[in-house]
Amino acid sequence: MAKTVGDFLFERLRLWNVERVFGYPGDGINGIVTALGRAGDEIEFVQVRHEEEAAFMASGHAKLTGEVGVCLATSGPGAIHLLNGLYDAKLDRKPVVAIVGQQARASLGGHFQQEVDLLSLFKDVASDYVQVCTAPEQARHLIDRAMRIAKSQRTVTAVIFPNDVQEADAVAPGHEHGTIHTGADFSQPRVIPNDADLARAAAVLNAGKRVAMLVGAGAWNAENEVVAVAETLQAGFAKALLGKAVLPDDLPYSTGQIGLLGTTASWKLMKECDTLLMIGSTFPYSEFLPKEGQAKAVQIDIDPTMLSLRYPADVALVGDAAETLRALLPLLERKRDGSWRETVESHVKTMWEEEGAKAHLSADPLNPELPFWEFSKHVPDNAVITADTGMSTTFFARAVKMRRGMKTAISGTLATMGPAVSYALAAKFAFPDRPAFAFVGDGAMQMLGSNGLVTAAKYYKRWSDPRLIVLVLNNRDLNMVSWELRSLGGSPKVFATQDVPDVDYAAQAEILGLRGLTMAGPADVPRVWAEALASDRPVVIDAKVDPNVVALPPHVTFEQTKNFFLAMAKGDSDRSAILTQLSRQWAA
Length: 588
Ligand SMILES: Cc1ncc(C[n+]2csc(CCOP(=O)(O)OP(=O)(O)O)c2C)c(N)n1
Ligand SMILES: [Mg+2]
What we know:
Layout: H1 5-15, E1 20-23, H2 30-39, E2 44-47, H3 51-65, E3 69-73, H4 77-91, E4 96-102, H5 118-121, E5 130-132, H6 139-153, E6 156-162, H7 163-167, H8 195-207, E7 211-215, H9 223-233, E8 236-239, E9 254-257, H10 264-272, E10 275-279, E11 296-301, E12 315-318, H11 321-328, H12 339-360, H13 370-378, E13 384-387, H14 391-399, E14 407-409, H15 420-430, E15 436-441, H16 442-459, E16 468-474, H17 479-487, H18 495-498, H19 505-511, E17 515-519, H20 524-533, E18 539-544, H21 558-569, H22 575-587
Parallel strand pairs: 1-2, 1-3, 3-4, 4-6, 5-6, 7-8, 7-10, 8-9, 10-11, 11-12, 13-14, 13-15, 15-16, 16-18, 17-18
Helix pairs in contact: 1-2, 1-6, 3-4, 3-15, 9-11, 10-12, 12-13, 13-20, 15-16, 17-21
Thiamine diphosphate (TPP) binds next to helix 14, helix 16 and helix 17.
């Protein structure tokens, strides 16, 4: 049988070193699915429950490996289901390629079943590259360009295949006017600023007396260099959430996370510094950075459009984080005065003491921060840790201590609910010998996480280390938004929108043949973590936690305080439990 366009697609993806495709079938991609059947072991197909899960897995794969994630969906509804996961990758600047089906060329424009204008649908999310393969000769350059653009621009691209084209014979382009001839090789360039600009940056950093560093996901390959610069400049560093795993927290001058979910030590670092060095971060909230004029600033980013965006940089350098810091290091003078470093370290010490105390305050029946705090004592160094959007993001950000070798994935910029279990699944396929952990709210679990457990049950026997451990923060509430309603909206909790049904997540896991465990009080926490880590299969931990524990941001404004007390005064149903919790925190 002659090779079809579908066969060619997988052959080409293999040439680009794609090992795995996350997806779901449909007759809109029959020609691709049959080719996948013929490809055998050449490429792994991971079957999901929902196309959004496939897109989150592709995004998670890209976030955790730095490689392109590929997802596959049928025409119409399948393509539509991909969108949220694709936006997650696009907004966090990760390379993902979406391959989707379309009705046959001859029927397009005929209001045919499942015919959706996919070029328009993907026009925004795949704004860097979205194309329809209308002739077999196009297949090669469409795949090559989708892969190259996704990789080089760290973005989302999409290729749409009408189903008759998928089944057509693969055709190489001729050699005449208008034919396109592409190849599959790509390597990242080495990007370093000019010497004169490095010297300007060094001058700013050498003149500073109190240097603060802000490190984001862009510094993922620069751990040693960031530490060397911090040592030379006697600086402290804060991390944006996407950069959580970039640097370990056992360094005494790591102030941990910055921002609403961040720490008091990061807040003080930024408010007291006279010089700011930002590396690979687009952290958005300006109120957590120095006030304009307070600090001289140097910024390093691989993407020029992200420079001088959050704080005006005196020296804005385009460069790879590791390469640029390596080039900068010989120009930096070792600071002699250690008093700033001492101040930072004392803030950090206080922060960990306070965080530990907060996690151990009693609550009814369990303080939601305690499982996160205890987790740091149990988690192995090679763990992959993911967190969903909700209060689990806050506790993950503040209470989980990173160590060298760990990896994390979160939805930073889109901040969508739903991806944590999918990210953890993607981790298990990319690193089957490493344990993966997902922290998920009950709302997010009900949205998509529970479906991901079916995927885990289907595949876990393939993983050399079967541990995929999901902790559900079971507070029967869309808690993060309930707090936002109170502190930003001055409104009491609205039952109709905020309450979520109480589900027995441990039983749900057991029904699927997985292990289900429950944390119903502080004494359960260390025991359950130890049991989960000893499991021979994926585990769900149902953590029955108190929705009324207030997780205050590191800096509370007058407006937020006023709104909060207004909400209480308007008769919040949980008022008395919340005020009891608050008085415990203040007493501590
Ligand atoms: C897809 C999506 N829908 C809605 C939101 C708004 N939102 C942000 S956090 C949150 C609550 C999450 O609830 P849950 O998963 O139970 O976590 P909790 O905050 O209760 O720990 C909501 C509704 C969102 N970020 N993403
Ligand atoms: Mg919840």
